[in-house]
Amino acid sequence: MTATLRQTATTVANSMIEGASMASALIGGAAGAYLGYQLAPTGWTDGTRILFAGAVAVVGAVAIDGLAELVFAPLRRLMRTRSPLNVTRASAPAPADDLDEALAQVATATEADAAHRAAGAAFRIDQGDNFLRDEDRWRGYEDGEASFYLAPGVWLHHRAEVGKYGREHHFTLLTGDGEQPVAITGMEQIRHHLAARAAGLPAAPATADTEDADEDKALIAVLDDHIKALEA
What is the spatial distance between Cα 17 and Cα 24, in angstroms, rounded to a whole number? Predict the structure, then answer.
């Protein structure tokens, strides 16, 4: 789910919670009014019975709403954690006075859009929702690509392109020491690579298109043993 879809789903869920809360209060009030009118002594005047029914309706609405809140309160807290109330969007810049200024504004917007798209697409490899999906840590570029700083000399690169079945997202691990870029499809590959670099060992995350698959698997098995030994 992209960030936009997640925000839409959160908004819809909040609306449903508030609607259900209001409905429960209305149901409690209606039930209280009916019971109050029925239980009022027949010797009372109609006006008195209506006032009594109204008082019981208020009590019923408050009681039912209080019971319903036991369920809705945890849901509201969950929605607030998914969509903090203090999140605000920056306002759009003033209209450009000339083409150069317009181009600068569009370039800035393109970089922000690239970072936003990268963070939204990161759920494909990071479903924990607390690391790669942090939009502030992505750096967008004018060509629509973006990078995520992982460690000195190591970046995660995001590139999107239109494929046969729609937009396709590609994540690649890049290093500053000339190593071959590695296609990333899961967090475990990033952990493997960083752990290997930290241990001073050659990093070779598994890829689907390597020519020497058997040798790669053997190297990875040995590397995993070294990493586990260092982490123990």
Answer: 11
